[in-house]
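Reopening this ticket.

The earlier resolution said the output was attached, but the attachment link was broken on my side. Pasting everything inline this time so it's all in one place.
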Amino acid sequence: MLLELFLIECKRILKCSTYYVLIICMLLFYITQIGNFEMIEKPVQGLDDYGTRYSEDENIIMDETLKTIIREFSANSYVTYPIGFYKEVILNEEKQLKIAGVLAEVTGLKKDDLISAIDVYYSSDVPTREELGLTIKEDMTYEYFKELMDQANQILGGGSRYRSSILQTNAWVPMTYEDAMREYNSIVYNDHLSGAFARLFSDYMGIILTILPVFLAVTRGLRDKRARANQVIYSRAASSFNIIISRYLSMLVMIMVPVLLMGGWMTLQCVYNGSGEGIFVDVFAFAKYTFGWLLPGIMISTSVGVFLTELTETAIGILVMGVWWFASIFMGIVTLRGGYSLNLIPRHNTLGNYQIYQENFNILALNRGIYTLAAIILTVAAVYIYSMKRKGKLIIHGKISSNRKSQSKA
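Inline output:
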């Protein structure tokens, strides 16, 4: 019965215009963002620019972070993303003095001397920051520095670039030829070429695939309601579980098909280019990242649509998912090149960076696991709500939502 209903739902989706709009949006996003990617080339010695990377040197991280917070302190204008949205924080005098206290502890200067030094530094070209003592004091440890930056982050209300977990993102340094060769070898030997491109593919497609499915889910849910199909559906012999799960699985499968086809096309490009360079290519990389990275996002977006449409019989699921998605986009800015966190949309907007991926793999796995579990819970809840409607025990908009005389089993 489940398979039969699943096939029926797939056919219904093929007749749904929303599905084709969804595919067009995916294709446009794919073509404009990553469709014509450039294959990597082995670095050549003697170039002026090999790109940039995050520094791993604790002294550089501390110094670059200090420069940033001094600049924001001087302007009393701090950039934060407390709930994912951009926010300029302007502190009152009391909190500014607290930040000054943190900076005084970092530099070893007295608070008044620190404030005077910053005023002088930003009012003239001389003396230099070093001459004014606006540097990390000699006995400062990285661990204590992180504690102080966390204090500054709390004063700012959270979401700033001074969180200890993301301090490295303040320190960009130019890559050397040796750095570029290490990155190239990592892509070739650790990622087997396709793995690096699969992460970049997942980064971009994760943005669109976390919002589009909710439109299909809401459309499918409301279509039956508008067509007054509830009484017919509720009276079927099929169980509530089979009806909802078949609908849910059909949407997942029909969305995954074009995603897998796009991943397959990129795999062919990797194989073609890699074979010319004698590089072994992992032909399953895109499939693994699609199921492991992208599918949980598709699941949660679809389940939000299914659950809220079943609960409210309105399109509110689109609004809820839209707000969540929009906030997640901004929250991902601080981990754009990896790091992940538990954000709805994990970001890895760089080719390679395998070390960051490996170091944070457990966080990424936890992230995807949490959203997979949440999607399952919401879908099961939708089954329960649907079952209550069939039994006439759930009232929506002041009316009993099902036929009380239905003799079917939920």
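Reporter confirms the inline version is readable. Residues 53-174 form one domain. Residues 328 and 344 are 6 Å apart (CA to CA).
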